[in-house]
Amino acid sequence: MTGGVLLRVEDLRFAYNGRPTLAGVSLQARAGEVVGLIGPNGSGKSTLLRLVSGVLRSHSGQVWVDGTPLGQLSRGELARRMAVVPQNPHLPEAFTAWELVLLGRTPHLRLFQAEGPRDAAVARQALETCGVWDLAEHRLGEMSGGEVQRVVIARALAQQPSLLLLDEPTSHLDINQQAAIMDIIAGLARERGLAVLAVFHDLNLAAQYCNRLIILREGRVLVEGQPGEVITPANVGAAYGAEVCVVPHPRNSLPVALVTGRTSINGGD
Amino acid sequence: MHLSETRRGRLWVWHSQGQARAAGRPIALLMLGVGGALLLSVLLAITVGAVSLPVGTVWHMLLSRTPFLGDVLGLPVTWTPAQEAVVLQIRLPRILLAAVVGGSLAVAGATYQGMFRNPLADPYLIGVAAGAGLGAVIGFALPLPQAWYGLGVVQWLAFAGATITVVVVSLLARVGNTTPLTTLLLAGVALGSFCTAITSFVIYLQQDKLHVIYFWLLGGLSLGSWQQLGTVLPYVLLSLAVVLVNARLLNVLQLDEEQAAQLGLNVERLKFVLVAAATMGTAAAVSVSGLIGFVGLIVPHAVRMLWGHDYRLVLPLSWLAGAIFLLWSDTAARTVLAPTELPVGIVTALCGAPFFLYLLRQRKRLVF
User: Fold this and answer.
1) Does residue B323 lie in a domain region?
2) CATH of the domain at B238
3) Nearest CA to CA, how far is A257 from chain B (Å)?
4) Taking CA atoms, what residue in B is nearest to A160?
5) From chain B, which residues contact A within 8 Å (Cβ)?
6) How many domains does chain B have?
7) Domain encompassing residue B139
8) Is B338 within 8 Å of B38 (Cβ atoms)?
9) pLDDT under 50 in chain B at which residues?
10) Alpha-carbon torsion (A146, A147, A152, A157), positive or negative
11) What is the ipTM of this complex?
12) Of A223, B188, B195, B278, whose CA is between 20 and 30 Å from A161?
């Protein structure tokens, strides 16, 4: 089901003003799989994404993107291999969906080059994949949160990456939109063979859609594996300090965690 | 919904659908139209002035002095040398200088608005005005020789003051390897206030020159000459070229910097290049015109309201529209109360503000 390793992170460390946020994280993501990154606030999830996407420079450790060390890739080369869907990105409201998605072609264009028919075809396909081609000429300021999020994912697809990073792609969305976004993401991995690394807040959503889950806690990998192995009362308790019971989902037997109380106050935020 | 076989704009933008938009194939026409309007403005404005001359005579004069064409046509000379001097040595360079200054200020304003993603940004945002003012006032105060390379000492010091201030602001705003835009803005405001304070102090000490200094600070083009035009033109054109080359990247910068970087941009280098280019254009403009307000703020907005927010359109059209706007403002400034001259800054604000408010009411949709 899964292919080659498109992202490999080894012993990544990072500190903000001397306070360590990542204390040696290793992980990988393969073609065709969705890897969910979960963990309490401040556990280093977003920092990890920003390091991997080259926005932050790591203090130590290594990142390989499709076999090439991150440091040896120019920004353009990186953007052709990896696309990022940020959490709550600033977007110009006056832009149409079409204009935003065309910006995804930036890493494929030379300085003087304008978008051509090929770029238009890629942009259209990206909008269609995300089900928002009908909204191409709508302004972002006039769209719902779910629609905007699809357009942002379409922009990432227009980069034609092999690796997709998402930071809480379903936050602020209603449950129907959450499912729609997750269906798109899972489809990209399954059908297009993208490697997806996504940060989630919602354990159950992550468990339903991810092939593998990684729990980060205090800048370290607490546990990693298939959803059934990771979402256990012991692991969730250790990571979040929350007391949960885990039941199988009636449809697919994937784990569902239900909060029953708090075991300590140091786990959460 | 067919993919854009309805192809709009060979050079610029592909639209998803064939709906009529400001962008698209008419872009070439749009540029030609606005460029033609600028040319027409030059030809009309040159016929207006304190010395009244028939329109036909003025154009004959221009034609007969056009290289090659003049010799070929061999038009009869029906005017005096004095009249010719008024048109060719006073009006024409002044009109062209107004166009160049207006264009530079507008394109610098558009660049800063785009870079800072702030609709209130203008070319003077990060200290150019305060630096130029300080340089100029020192030029007035010091007993220095009058002219170097076509510009007076005041102009050179204004240029230097503007450039040095922005360099210092940029250095002060650096945090590690980056220059956060907020820091840049705050450093610009702080250093600007500092320069303005020194300027006020020098003016206070030089009260006999108060009138001259005051007029310089208000801005004006009454001293425009071919020499000045020739001296500032290289800076202005270079600045324009650099900004235009980066126009598409300025579109990407309308996202935040993190997204722009994740789309493959070297954001720090882009910011540096844009600030350097905008500063050079503004400093060159300010050195010959003083501090003309409003052009750099409102012209880019007017362009956006009329023709959309793609910087590949906004930048060149801002240049052309700014040129037309300042050209006519200056024509009004030199003719309305002739032979007395109005400071052109008064005209730009008096005409520009109502027009801008009109556009704002007309088009309430999002444009920035």
Assistant:
1) yes
2) 1.10.3470.10
3) 34
4) B263
5) 1, 3-4, 7, 9, 11-17, 19, 117, 245-246, 248-249, 251-252, 254-256, 258-259, 261-266, 309-310, 312, 365-368
6) 1
7) 51-362
8) no
9) 1-14, 16-24
10) positive
11) 0.91
12) A223
